[in-house]
Amino acid sequence: MSTASELHVVLGAGGAVGATLVDELHARGRRIRAVNRSGGLTVPEGVEVVRGDVTTPDGATAACAGAAVVYHCAAPAYTAWASEFPALTDAIRRGAAAAGAKLVFADNLYMYGPVGTAMTEDMPHAAAYPKGRVRAAMARALLAAHEAGELRVAIGRASDYFGPRGVNSTVGDTVFGAAVRGKVVRWVGPLDQPHSFSYLPDFAKGLAVLGEDARADGRAWHVPTAEPLTGERFLALLFTELGRPGKSAAVSHTAQRLLGLVNPTVRALGETWYQRDRPFTVDSTAFTDTFGPLPPTPHTTAIGETLSWFRETTT
Fold first, then answer.
1. 304: how many CB neighbours lie within 10 A of its CB?
2. Residue-by-residue DSSP string for 40-58
3. Where are the alpha helices (DSSP H) in 57-99?
4. Is the dihedral of CA 115, 119, 123, 124 positive or negative?
5. Are 147 and 218 contacting, i.e. CB atoms less than 8 angstroms apart?
6. What is the tens place of the pLDDT at every residue in 99-121?
7. Taking the model in full, what pTM does it have?
8. Which CATH fold would you assign to the domain 7-162+198-225+282-296?
């Protein structure tokens, strides 16, 4: 267990995951350094804010100096994962190792590729497309560094996330933002497939647990999520919490391909259509068996809190 005097460094603290993790660590009474490229962050009182470029080993080493735990929540643009993510993660690995710090990587589920059952951490990395392959390669490299004794590593994995600050996910602005503006809510994929969603504050709690518990070291963990929902059920809860009827439309694979002709981010979603046209659910038994229950936020509460944030920031 980390002590309050030890330094926890959050890289990518300007993003949705990193900023939420800063809040969680602050609530736990940790000493925190929040790092992003601009240094322009709004953080709780007492959090150190540092402007840093962690894409280079020197920049990452400076950002991580003095840390007991480093949380890798930084990421390049979605369309640049294959070309930029490995070098970024390698620089951060070097920076954390130079500090003698434990590294916790905020990961996702892309590496498993198409699956027919709930995902567990021991599934093969079967992704055939660049984004999934690069996620798999980064995880393997980090765990190899752990096995080699270079540094301690733990990996926490989330599904598609939503929550306050969660603007850029597939259930971000095009769902919550559109709903509060009275626009058509665009749901990517069929509405009838069950899907696990990660609520950002729940994911942050899980990452904090991984950072503070030595039993997390040397492997990947699925952070617990609430029960899977179909798109139809998710939207029904959304409009109930919104307090008024709304308009929604499912974005088909054909529509995604057409929109992708002019929008590179939408085009990139085609790689992971298998996450949308069939059940995409998470098994987090290993996490709860090891660390004890981490009860996910109920969907109604999570959706209501997310709507409140979007109301405050878009109106």
1. 16
2. -----TT-EEEE--TTSHH
3. 57-64, 81-99
4. positive
5. yes
6. 999 999 999 999 999 998 999 99
7. 0.96
8. Rossmann fold (3.40.50)
